[in-house]
Amino acid sequence: MGLKGKTIPGKVVKVVPHKDPLLGGVGVGKSSARVRVGAEKYIIFAPALMFAVEMDPKKNGNTVNVGHIKKQIEPRWFAAYTNPRAEKLVRDRLFEAGINVFLPLQKTYRIWSDRKKLVEVPLLSSYIFVKVVPLEFIKVYQVPGVVRFVTFEGQPAPIPENQIDNLRLLINSDAEIEVTSERFDPGDVVEVVRGSLVGLTGELIHTGAHSRVVVRIDRLDQNLIVNIPMTFLRKL
Q: pLDDT tens, 143-202?
C-alpha cells in the first residue's frame, strides 16, 4: 500500500516503532511502521525510512499526512565469501557496481622454471570485504562470484572498522604475515608504536622462544601473525 504523499482519514492514536536487528531502524518484520488510524491499523513498509505523521490543521485534524524522513544508517564492513581464485574478479565487479570494496593483497614472489616474478595474491583466500548498508546486501549478492556473507546467528556479521584498519596497515607494510587457523589463548592487547606498522593493534602471544603479535578478524576462522620487536610495542 503506497501512502507517500497521501492522506489517511481518521485520527492518529500513536505510531509504534519496532526495532529491526538487521536494518537497525524501525520496522514490523523487515522494515515498517505501524500506524493506528481510528480503529484501523496501517502497516507502512519502507526500508531504512523513518515516518513523519502529522495532523492536517486545514481539515480540523480529521486527516493525517504520512511522509517519509530518511533515516541515516551508517554503512559498515562485512566479509563475504567468493568463489575460489575469483577474489580479484569479484572485487572489480563490485567496484563497477558502485560498492565500496576492499580486497587485502599481499606481495609475494612466484617462481617458474625460467623466471621469478613479484605478484599480488589475496591475503585471505576466498574472502572480500564490502562497506554497505543492509539495503545493499542484495546488490552484493547479485554480483557473480559472491557466494554468501559471513554470518553470525543467521545474519551478516559486521566487521569492526579498526580491524579493517589493521588489515590496511599490514598490507601496506613490509612485514612478513603468516595466516593461520590455529587457535590462540587471549594475550595482552598491544599497540605498535614504532616502525612501518605504527597504530596496529593486536594480542601479544608467545610461540616457543618468540613473542609475536596476532591480529584477529572477527567471524573469520583465520588469524594474522606478525613478528614485531618487543621494543616496538606498548601494552594497552
A: 999 999 999 888 999 999 999 999 999 998 888 888 988 888 878 899 999 888 999 999
CATH architecture entry for 173-236: Roll (2.30)
Residue 167 sits at φ, ψ, to 5 deg, of: -60, -45
| DSSP string over 16-58 | E--B-TTTSSB-STTSEEEEEETTEEEEEE-TTEEEEEEE-GG
Beta bridge partners of 188: 204
53 beta partners: 66
Coil, helix or strand at residue 87: helix
Contact by Cβ (8 Å): 214, 225: yes
Question: What digits encode the pLDDT tens for the residues 78-93?
Answer: 999 999 999 999 999 9
In the CATH hierarchy, which fold is given to the domain comprising 74-159? Alpha-Beta Plaits (3.30.70)
Domain with CATH 3.30.70.940 in the chain: 74-159
pTM over 0.70: no
Residue 169's SS3 state is helix
